[in-house]
Amino acid sequence: MDNVTVEADALNRVYGSNAVVRDVNFSLRKGEVLGFLGPNGAGKSTTMKMLTGNLAPTSGSVKICGIDIIEQPKEAKALIGYLPETPPLYKELTVDEMLTLSARLHGVARGSVKKAVESAKERCGLTEMSKRLIDNLSKGYQQRVGIAQAIIHNPMVVILDEPTVGLDPIQIRDIRALIKELGGEHSVILSTHILPEVEMVCDHVQIIHKGQLVFNGSIDVLKQQRHGNRLLLGLTNAPDTEELLKIDGVVSVEPAANGLLRLRYAEGAAPAERIVQSAVNNNWGLYQINPDQTSLEEVFMQLTYQEAAAN
Ligand SMILES: Nc1ncnc2c1ncn2[C@@H]1O[C@H](COP(=O)(O)OP(=O)(O)OP(=O)(O)O)[C@@H](O)[C@H]1O
Q1: Which atom of ligand 1 is nearest to 161's Cα?
Q2: Which InterPro entries match (predicted)?
Q3: What pTM was computed for the model?
Q4: Residues 211, 22 contacting (CB under 8 angstroms)
Q5: In the 8-state DSSP scheme, what is residue 294?
Q6: What ipTM, to 2 d.p.?
Q7: Is 164 close to ligand 1, i.e. is its CB under 6 Å away?
Q8: For ligand 1, what atom is nearest to the CA of residue 15?
Q9: Closest Cα to residue 144, out of 166, 125, 162?
Q10: Tens-digit pLDDT profile for residues 98-154
């Protein structure tokens, strides 16, 4: 149990008569990167605020390295770095000034501030930007400053709420790489509505749907669930469905978007090579074959259906 950094126990949050977070339980260990995945309005930000002690739960508790965040907020919060949905940046300050201020606010000893600022800048690729006004930085660099202020006191737990929203693809790639790297030394919780982001960055994932956790497990299990034994096939000269069904392992064929065919295959079967063989031998004009990945919405539907069936 020693290396448990975050423990959420039966967390609930009600607004008026609206239960927006319902009975959320989980724990996180040192070095893990946890993806907290859910569509807009699922309750991610509300959960992040409760985890960081910025919002009191209606019931339930949060412990950071064994310290209760309601009973001992100062001690527990010292172990957390938090990047809220809107980064808390004073845009009229330079990067150095902002990070020096953050270090002081996070209680870094006066004599260690300079070192903490240099180290956070280096980890977040900000050294070149030290003297620049935050207002003049691109959104991607502003987000890096947001992450730098969250890690400046070298906290055990780093919580990032939708850190890649509004960034361009190159900035997104860089920020994801940075988050992945943080996982080595800290526990990281990353809230996002982007399924591939979780697959790229996290080793654990929790899916929240209408305030409830509907999945809590390793990323590999989710990937398996997502791949779902389906292939998309593009043939310029497609044969009758019966011909495709004759291929060993193929269990169904249906039309998909853009003139493609969706083939389902039996669990454990790997028919791709046989399909390619048949296509070449019979001149079906194969121009595409790839796994048909389930969208986030479909994964939600599958998971909520399983949940309902289990109850
Ligand atoms: N202060 C509040 N008062 C009343 N309802 C609220 C309040 N804050 C959030 N909610 C509601 O709680 C639900 C969950 O909101 P939350 O911001 O946690 O979702 P989210 O998953 O973070 O989505 P988003 O990515 O859109 O922020 C939403 O229906 C929202 O309208």
Answers
A1: 22
A2: AAA+_ATPase, ABC_transporter-like_ATP-bd, DrrA1/2-like_C, P-loop_NTPase
A3: 0.79
A4: yes
A5: P
A6: 0.94
A7: no
A8: 4
A9: 125
A10: 999 999 999 999 999 999 999 999 989 899 999 999 999 998 899 999 999 999 999
